[in-house]
Design brief:
It is built from 10 helices and 2 strands. The chain has a two-stranded antiparallel sheet with strand order 1-2. Helix 1 packs across helix 3, helix 1 runs parallel beside helix 9 and helix 7 packs antiparallel against helix 8. The longest helix has 26 residues. The two termini are 24 Å apart.
């Protein structure tokens, strides 16, 4: 499908909005890009939309994660664990999603997003920098920007051995990335917050992991001839600068407020996906 100049401009704008959300909340942005591409008629179908979205996410995530890395708001060990298992999930989700009814996937994702929104809202007071962690060997905390009263944000969760849980979480996020064209951050960020990781650290770590999950997913979809460069490149270009700006805004936002905004985003996206699953959008 050829893309005209207006289509390129539309893709740039879609990418910019998705990039802003990506940098602020640690999500890939696909939950915005996929439906927007379909509504704008820039792609031929759902699979093409997910492939283009995942390609853009590969560039959005490093741009946003750079800001969090400078602020020491990334746990590299967690990010690598999530990313490595996410690669397997991304390949599995890309291959296995074809026979699964799309409405069923959207329904499950919508319900999960709403549940995570409730959990993040309930835990936002603790996520605002006050550690819910018990004594954990090697536990560290980093300074939080934006004049946060708490001043310290935990980078470790309260589990003594969190890696099996993180591996399962990364795999689930990868499956989500491969099947719906999203980065998986809407699963990883709230779950890490619930486990006791500070909200800024959860966002930064999620962005690091998404680089791996999106890369594996888009490589698989490209091999299946589901990729359209003329749409994917403008998405990536529009999103990169916006992802950086979103991450800067998030770093200047207090942890408690950022957790509140994250829960609102979860509710919004969860409701939207449920409406899609019901055929109302």
């Amino acid at each position: 499908m050829a893309v005209d100049p207006l289509g390129v401009i539309a893709a740039l704008c879609i990418g910019a909005f998705a990039g802003l959300l990506s940098g602020m909340f640690g999500i890939g942005g696909g939950v915005v890009m996929v439906p927007a591409l379909l509504v704008a008629g820039l792609v031929g179908g759902f699979n093409e939309a997910t492939a283009c979205s995942l390609f853009a996410i590969i560039f959005l995530s490093p741009t946003g994660s750079y800001v969090y890395l400078r602020a020491h708001h990334i746990n590299p060990r967690y990010g690598l664990t999530l990313g490595a298992s996410g690669v397997l999930g991304g390949v599995a989700g890309s291959v296995a999603s074809a026979p699964v009814p799309q409405a069923l996937l959207e329904l499950a994702f919508g319900l999960f997003a709403l549940a995570m929104g409730v959990r993040v809202a309930m835990n936002s007071r603790d996520a605002g920098g006050r550690s819910r962690c018990g004594p954990v060997a090697g536990e560290r905390a980093r300074e939080v920007g934006a004049g946060d009263e708490d001043r310290r944000e935990p980078t470790e969760c309260r589990l003594r051995n969190p890696y099996p849980v993180l591996a399962l979480l990364g795999f689930a996020a990868g499956v989500l990335a491969g099947s719906l064209g999203v980065g998986g951050g809407l699963i990883m960020v709230p779950m890490m917050v619930v486990l006791g990781v500070g909200v800024h650290v959860a966002i930064g770590t999620s962005l690091m992991a998404i680089i791996f999950t999106a890369g594996a997913s888009v490589a698989t979809k490209a091999s299946l001839s589901l990729f359209q460069v003329g749409v994917a490149l403008p998405l990536a270009i529009g999103g990169c600068a916006a992802a950086y700006a979103g991450a800067v805004v998030a770093e200047r936002t207090r942890s408690k407020e950022l957790a509140k905004y994250l829960s609102i985003l979860q509710f919004t996206i969860g409701g939207y996906m449920l409406l899609r699953a019901a055929g109302l959008l």
